[in-house]
Amino acid sequence: MRNLVVCLIVFLVSLDITGQTIKTGVGTDLPLAVLDVRAIDPISPDNSTGVSIPKVFNFPVVDPIVDQNGMLIFYEKEPLSTDTKLDGFYYWDNPAGNWEYIMQSKSIKLDFSKTIAMGSVFDNTMGTGSGPVKTSFTEMDNLDPDYSLNNGDVIVGKSGLHLIYLTAGVTKKQRPTDPQENIAESFTLEILVNGTTFSPSFVSIGANPSTLNNERSTTFTVSALETLSAGDALSVETARSSATSTNEVEVSSPYTLTLIYLE
Fold first, then answer.
1. pLDDT tens digits, one per residue of 109-161
2. Domains identified in the chain and CATH numbers
């Protein structure tokens, strides 16, 4: 009973004299805010002086709710994690539905608007036909968790104007015993949105001429400004101008798609 009385007195003392505002002081008997934390020795603080925010190694599977808008955590990647998010403080932004990173001096020079995706192999063998073949993106480097990979496509995280920039290279391997190998004279690369052609189309044509059956390569570069919607899926396909033998064309320079959110 005595302990209950003591606790009640401490609680009453923490009340504002108006009875309307509760103030809690740590290290002070005269808190000047709802929560007022003071160092015991601000001139020569020891190594325990400070406020420890909850540390997590993974973000919650279930998102917080509107009543938790502004909730603060400290995220620290596990040693073997492949997560691209930065270690540091995050707060829950309920209207946006995201954990938002709090900018710190170590990240001030990083570009949070840029997403880079890479793919190094064709999904299917380039056979004797000249139909388009997809190159799936398998790696992504970005700091914005809204952008992601799904089924080899880059999934756009924000609606608005984007700069799209892609570089790639292909090689036709040497096969001197097959005289038909010199037929492949050019390759066409195209960026698609949701599996369909942009209007106007985003296409790069790489010449690949040769009078001999020697190995030869070509590279692609394509860039454009385009308004995209959150959830759009970007993919890349490559086609030949004419046929070559099966499995005689391969990726020589990774298909690298850079996506920059502008506004």
1. 556 678 888 888 877 766 555 578 888 888 888 777 788 888 888 898 888 88
2. 2-37 (no CATH), 55-107 (no CATH), 114-261 (2.60.120.40)
- DSSP secondary structure, the chain, as one string: -HHHHHHHHHHHHTB-TTSS-B-EEES-SS-SSSEEE--S-SSS--TT-S--PPEESS--SS---GGGTT-EEEE---TT----SPSEEEEEETTTTEEEEPP-GGGTTS-TTEEEEEE-S-SS---SS---EE----EEEES-TT-EEETTEEEP-S-EEEEEEEEEEEEEPP-TT-GGGGG--EEEEEEEETTEEEEEEEEEEEE---SSS--EEEEEEEEEEEEE-TT-EEEEEEEESS---TT-EEEEEEEEEEEEE--
Q: Is the pLDDT of residue 259 over 80?
A: yes
